[in-house]
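User: Predict the complex.
Assistant: Input components as received:
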Amino acid sequence: MSAHRIAGLGRIDRSRTVTFTFDGKAMQGCPGDTLASALLANSVVLMGRSFKYHRPRGLLGAGAEEPNALVSVDRGGGRFTPNLRATAVEIYEGLNVRSQNRWPSLKTDFGAINDRFGRFFPAGFYNKTFMWPRSFWDKLYEPTIRRMAGLGDAPIEADPDVYAATYAHCDVLIVGAGPAGIDAALEACAARKQVILIDEQDELGGGALADPALWPWLESSLNDLAAAPNVTLLSRTTAFGFYHDNFIGAGQRLTDHLAEPGHGPRERLWRIRAGEVILAQGAIERPLVFAGNDVPGVMLASAARTYLVRFGVAVGDRVVLMAVHDSGWRDAFVLARAGMKIAAIVDLRAQVAPDLMAEAAELGVPVEMNSAVIGVSGRHAVTGAEIADSAGGNRHKIVCDAVLMAGGWTPSVHLWSHSKGSLAWSEEWGAYLADKPNENVRCVGACAGKWNYGTGVSIGALPTPDDPATIKAFVDFQNDVTAKDIALAVREGMKSVEHIKRYTTNGMATDQGKTSNLNALQLASGALDRPVQAIGLTTFRPPYTPQTFGMLAGDAKGALFQPTRKTAIDPWAEEHGAVFELVAQWRRARYFPQGGEDMHAAVARECLTVRSGVGIFDASTLGKIEVVGPDAAEFLNRMYTNPWKALEPGRCRYGLLLREDGFITDDGVSARLAPDRFHLTTTTGGAARVLNMMEDYLQTEWPDLDVWLTSTTEQYAVIALQGPKAREVIAPLVSGIDLSSESFPHMAVREGTICGVPTRLFRVSFTGELGFEINVPAAFGRYVWEQVWAAGQAHGITPYGTETMHVLRAEKGYIIVGQDTDGTVTPYDAALDWAVGKKKADFVGKRSLARPDIVAPGRKQLVGLLTDDPAEVLEEGAQIVADPRQPIPMKMIGHVTSSYWSATLGRSVALALVQGGHERMGETLHVPMPGKTIAAKVSGMVFHDPDGSRLNG
Amino acid sequence: MILIHCPYCDQTLPELEFAYAGEGHIARPTDPSALSDEDWERYLFIRDNPRGRHHERWRHIHGCGRFFNAVRDTVTDKFEMTYKAGEPRQ
Amino acid sequence: MTRFSAFSLFAKALGNNKTWPELWPDASPKPAYDAIIVGGGGHGLGAAYYLAKKYGITNVAVIEKGWLGGGNTGRNTTIVRSNYLYDESAHLYDHAVKLWDGLSQDLNFNVMYSKRGVMMLAHNVHDVQSFQRHIHANRLNGVDNEWLTPEQAKEYCPPLSIDPGARHPILGAALQRRGGTARHDSVAWGYARAAAALGVDIIQNCAVTGIRRGPDGAVQGVETERGFIAAKKIGVSAAGNSSVIMKMAGLDFPLESYPLQALVSEPVKPVFPCVVMSNTVHAYISQSDKGELVIGAGTDQFVSYSQRGALHIVEHTLAAITEIFPMFRRMRMLRSWGGIVDVTPDRSPILGKTPVPGLYVNCGWGTGGFKATPGAGDLLAYTMAKDEPHRINAPFNLDRFRRGQLIDEAAAAAVAH
């Protein structure tokens, strides 16, 4: 029996047991155990397989730095999570854990053949081979590499859990609830600051949890903090990233440790803005680099101490300590005093402080100075260690079942680095320490290098009499990067630390180099014969530890990912069977099928009904802007291409808006309600953009203009009533407005009431028929709609959707900005010359229309297109050529922008952008499609009622 | 998420309330038609894009709605100042 | 140069890998070169390689202020595709895709170009129209791109959720089968090694501080941290720092530099067979050979050189990804980072001559530079060697902004109505 539980020690609750399974085998632990401590208590030391060589691995550490013991947890029902560190998984009744990256089992893994042939797979090997024969890369080599790579399996079911997100503000945020963090919290608390203290572990205390002498202090301090109204304590919470202006992201794990997770969120994202950030993240012990340092049972000395003191688990019966730092000695003494056999303390240094030697003697621990472990026997568990003096002499073996490594300490400056604080090399620590801050942040405790762990030396790899090129001494455990890989990278010309990292993948595993970065730096420093500081340091990037996608997405899921905007009439459309489409952020009724109609049939019916009778359409999504002020007309005159100043109140005008680069960005019909008041409309998708653009010009270019802009898009419901019977339908409902053609002509606006509701009634048409757009306050939208709908019954009214709207407008050659134009189209290209004020000295975009390539011939221009076969409906987006017999690549001269079956005309109609199109009237062009080429003639854009007589009816 | 001081609201608020609005102090020419193609191109497209001190515009779009100017270091992302539209270049 | 092959790998391994030579020697600057490339990313190294290999100009230096491939080459999501709408763009990117195919053999360095397919999701009718337009144009340009129904898309990429009730349902997808990914660092290293073997000097840790011009206005060389280096031809391929370098030659450019973030998950066993992009929700995803999900986002909103992005961009990106792939909600983000992308007004690159004689530029690739690496390198080399642009990069000249002949792919996909 190697690792085992020791009676009477630890902070776990021994009065109860918890049953969990590991690879199907049931085991017991105690409440308070991590999976790592519970497995050790069950004498399980083999917990994982490494990434590349599939080497058997046990625990290296006891915390967030763990690179080896990665497992998958399956809670069932889609709750499968790979790559969890056993040191961070809390056990609960029924916990179901699987080892990973092995086949068929953890003990017998065929992938370990990679280990046998490891020297054929040195760093960067994949760059040097798999190139011949060429076709094998896609079919054989790469799929094989991919299968071998990866750690755990991916989840393959939708995650049923929910996640939450919150904001928090505080005066002081303290990251890390070890002694230094707790001291800082007590101090800030006493100063009456608002304090948040967060720690990634289930239990607050950090390093104090492995030091019983501090337990009374810990308990009273935490009680004080918990009782303080100005302190928030967050355990199981990882501050993962330090962003601009003291903005910290933290992930809180709420249910993963519970046997019954309940219905609350699994994790919560905390977005914390702190006045001051105090980083008390402590330090992580460094492993040592020697042959066999990855055999299960070789671990950090501090981890062994934690397992003993906190969890009451002895990591072995006979333990060897390999130290280059005093702290390991102290850990070994703790183990020895608990009754564990320390077979030897091996230290590379020639001497250590006399008190250490004295204590070792007192405890009867043999000491071998000026020596190093040069090999470890055992494959699935340590069976012994080989030791030699630093000159390679006195080789001898010691039987043992655990080897502890004390390589010194690396302060956790990750968040400090995220904040762009600078780092300075400390010879004393053999590590980088925080130097100059870039935000209001400071480090305290071990994180700042201010903690007494004793002294030590830092070293890349332990000396060995064996050829370093033939041994596997691991630097990055998970990614299987060895000391010789670092040497190879340097040999191959990788001189910057970033190159070494990327070439060897050192520091790129799921632990992100927490235990490997400094050792790799030391090794590279040796290989390059340059000081560590001259090689640089890889940049730490968020997150500190891996963070769940779902938590980072927070509550932005489904309907909350992006709200769907719905009009006041939307529920009516839903009740009446509308099929919807998403347009910008809105959902709009696309068509209203009746009986078993498909879209084609429904649209044909809707179109014919509008042309012959009347149809009702929800146009509420149109953007609306109220433009008010004495200079309103002047302002619009500067913004739009056409003149606005002479527009009489009560009349409407089509407005065309360009970007300053001369291309069409929006359009809409707008009305002048009074000399100083306009009701603008924009496209559905363009509303916010247009308002922003207008505000920009108004505020920053023409602040002298006395104009106010207000978005009224959601204030009004807009009911379009279109068709020859439209007037008859609304006549009984409207009061205060003379609806006769003489007093209320096309392109006019009147204010009055409809169904008793105040309305701005537009006489406008996007269909070519007599039509009205009824603007009423949105709250009355559905009411008025239903009244109009009822009144229309006698006239055979139909609701219609966007698809019919598209067909009807295309039959009339009305463009849709964004479909018939695409951000590269000028007014001239779109045959909208008539909408450009020729006499205007300036308007937004005017100057750009005079640029050389804008006035050059051969631009793509909007035209009509009629297929020779009237039954053929062109595909929107289909490309147009003049010569269909040319080889590929063909010279394309345009594309179809809109294309529909016109039930009214009994044939297809299309609009297209064609090079020099306006000069090609009557010309036959060709649309090459897969398997056939479609001939079509260029025509004018108005296919229906070219003289507009129906509009004015 | 950077913090931005709105000179109109006189409050320092998170970036999510603001929309970036490009380089600052690029005034629209009073008579664009008089400009050469080169000068018009410069107005439309040429941007300073410095490493370091940058004059730029922001809009407090989810607040007061005002456009304002800022000087920010593009290497550190730190604001030196913000000031109201129309005030001289700082 | 030691030829790389399974045999050399085997032979060297028998010697415990002790005799591998340097991939490229770390050169010190000579006083003068025939041509200098400023910027040691994939594009710049590629240009140097093709100058030496195709145009016989071997007295070339690549000058890099940091380490090779340390800019956007080493920070991108490695997507390769060429299904662009306009002829100019399609020809430009397809030139690159053709070079990608065979690049490993050409360089004798496996850049791990993987033709696993790039799928672009259509979420609304407008997307469908836009993608159909791309597909038709691509077909007539000889660029592969095909339409998939939602069911076909799901078959090609099983993790996809095609629930029609989703907030952004999938109405179909455009698939370019030749598209895929490559290993970003390997591209820089492969070009550096091959260029160095042809005589090119690779000079790292040497920031350019000035561009010296003669009385005739033509370039004479570059001032650097390590002294003046003369050359009559200078090609600038400096991505996010292009504005800064061009200003040294007295040129103001139509460029702005924005932060672009990307992130990877922890590695998992193969689960994601292709590249999926969604412009509507602003996210893209693939799985690296190592097993990490590689995920990209849109740019942050403000000009910055800090290489430090904001958390809310990451939040949005992952919300978008998990909306389309709900099974990835339990995956975990391992690392996120930011690059600096230089963006032109029409979001197409500038690749060609400048008003300064002897000064050539390759910039403005925005978020799309990696896919163009071999093509951009080749065309910059051609332009420098011949002192005139190749017909493929001729439309991507600087003058188009004055003339108004923009190549605006993003505007072509504009959403309105």
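Chain B touches chain A at residues 1-3, 14, 19, 21, 27-28, 31-33, 35, 37, 40, 44, 57, 59, 61, 65-67, 76-77, 85-86 (CB under 8 Å).
Let me know if you want any component modeled separately.
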